[in-house]
Amino acid sequence: MVTRENQLGEFLRASRARLEPGQAGLPDDLTTRRVAGLRREEVAVLSGVSADYYTRLEQGRERNPSSQVVGALARALRLGPDARDHLLRLAGLHPGVLEVPPLQVDPSLLQLLDAFPRAAAYVLGPAFDVLAANRIATALLSPFGKERNMPRILFTHPAARVVFVEWSLVAGATVRALRLNAGLFPSDPGISAVVAELTAASAEFRALWEDQTVGGLMRAYKVFVHPRVGRVELTYQTFDVKDTPGQQLLVGTAESLASQDAIDQLASLATA
User: Fold this and answer.
1) Burial class (CB in 10 A: 0-12, 13-18, 19+), 64
2) Which domains are delineated in the chain?
3) Is the pLDDT of residue 214 over 70?
4) In sequence order, what are the residues at sequence separation of 6 or more whose Cβ sits closer than 8 angstroms to the Cβ of residue 118?
């Protein structure tokens, strides 16, 4: 289970540190500031609460803010929709906290994967394990052997930084989405296990995780360098599996004729 003593306060503190005064409509007196981002007093003023109350929220001495206060804090901190919902969940006010989803993939979804003969399609679980993949996706991920957890691949597999050309972008987006899922599925043992493992094993993961930024998987452009077929440029679309919350279908389609040729070669390798 992903539990921390003061998740709400840590998220507020990290969000405050990321927001520059100018972004919040305040004077950019950066030369006189001793801390990054906004001061506690400034967040309090912007959200219409007392400085003492806001301080107690950050310190974990106050844990039950109203939905009106949380909404005001989200506006003051310029949080996007994913981050705002995450803040509501940390405050115990969002109905979106879900039970641990099953790891089995519905047979109809397995059949759907095969409906993409010229695209890489796979299903992710909440800890970003690849639960099922079509033959092209399986071939695309073959440089990582039997490992099927994407965060572990990115932060511990020696081939990750070669295969993923824009590794830092992919890694950052993955950690942000993993933290979002940790709020959605706080009892998921798979998320807890991978976070604990990578926090201990990777300083880069630890820094990204402690940054507290959240964001769902979105449309993304990814560049792979596969040892058998070379450069593959794909645009990914992500679809939530409505019948199984927590599972997501990702479909990567070729960005160019050269990439489609590489995809077709992967399909041939998968059937060889």
Assistant:
1) exposed
2) 7-90 (1.10.260.40), 107-271 (3.30.450.180)
3) yes
4) 136, 253, 254, 260, 263, 264, 267
